[in-house]
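Protein record
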Amino acid sequence: MPSQQTAQQTYIVREALTATPQKLQLMLIEAAIKNIHRTKMHWENNAAEEAFTALTRVQDIITEILCSLDMEGSPDIAKSIASIYVFIFRKIAMAKGPNDIALLDDALKVLMAERESWREICEKFGSTTDGKRKSATFESKTQKPAASGSSALPATREIRPTAPHLVSGKQKTQETTVSKGFSRDA
């Protein structure tokens, strides 16, 4: 089994190294979803340590997404996107102590909507044959989490050629998060 695990980890790292920024975002979201499901399974089996580890990985992934946002290029868009991931992070943090599945489900619903949006983005706006990234406007299926006095997200958000994941050398950190989030024993 160790060689299969090593081969899988190598594949994931290679995939992350060659992925478009949109695909990296999708990979992170999928890893977060996978670890939420692991957490729920571990809670059902009374495996507290494993559940804690899986939930901590979700928090690490969400933190990476938040840290990689380009706040200088499009601050309004970045702030709107950040509010979604802050909502997810808070729900996960609140669920940790009492093992609250309802709070995890709240975070999971938002992540699943984000996953569908990013899947569509990857299908429509991968990379062009000349290696340049396409810029696109995409209608988000995710609504901003309701906060006191806040309004919903704008109907569109721009996917910029200068991807937030590649700002100031953060790609390596993200690749590490992706491989941790997807590893079989994680």
About this structure: The chain has one domain: 2-182. Residues 21-44 form the longest helix (24 residues). The CA atoms of residues 5 and 171 lie 23 Å apart. DSSP finds six helices and two strands in the chain.
